[in-house]
Amino acid sequence: MLRQIAVCLLVLVFTFGLTSFKNSALAQSSKKPIEKSSDLPNPLRAEVIGIQDGDTIELKYVYNGKKAGFRMGKAVRIRFTHINSPERGRPYYKVAKQFTSDKCFHKVVSIKHNGEFDRYGRLLGEVVLPDGKILNKELVKNGLAVHFKKYSDSQEYSELEIKAKKQKIGIWSPQGQVSAAVK
């Protein structure tokens, strides 16, 4: 009886182990390698593999150029130009991050940029979604980011922010204003 149980357990372990190995091998073979380059195409097209927050994403693309600073040789991070979304712990942080994720995670996007990096080694740019919309603008339209006037004099982003304020959506909603006042 004990021998039969041991044989059954051995067969089960072997079967599950083989299935797991097979699935792992399939997953490895279907993954495309991360593209690496010392050139920075404009626009830069790549798959989004990470969402840091509402206005920062990571691409499946490695840039080896010196402008990237300490991020040289690492996956390129994009800091959205013209906008600033709520920081961790602030009202609407999670909503903005989820919005960005829903719009672009595991999708191929285009980054329009001027080849400028910030002090953290992030490429500054506008994220063009597969449907042609600009994610930076969509965040402001939906009240999930503000026009970052310190670094942008764009009239279009300013108008998008004013419209979101008038509509009282997102961070401009009564709930957003109350939450901000409490913090």
From TrEMBL:
<keyword id="KW-0540">Nuclease</keyword>
<dbReference type="GO" id="GO:0016787">
    <property type="term" value="F:hydrolase activity"/>
</dbReference>
<protein>
    <submittedName>
        <fullName>Nuclease</fullName>
    </submittedName>
</protein>
<dbReference type="GO" id="GO:0004519">
    <property type="term" value="F:endonuclease activity"/>
</dbReference>
<dbReference type="InterPro" id="IPR016071">
    <property type="entry name" value="Staphylococal_nuclease_OB-fold"/>
</dbReference>
<keyword id="KW-0255">Endonuclease</keyword>
<keyword id="KW-0378">Hydrolase</keyword>
<dbReference type="Pfam" id="PF00565">
    <property type="entry name" value="SNase"/>
</dbReference>
<dbReference type="InterPro" id="IPR035437">
    <property type="entry name" value="SNase_OB-fold_sf"/>
</dbReference>
<feature type="domain" description="TNase-like">
    <location>
        <begin position="42"/>
        <end position="174"/>
    </location>
</feature>
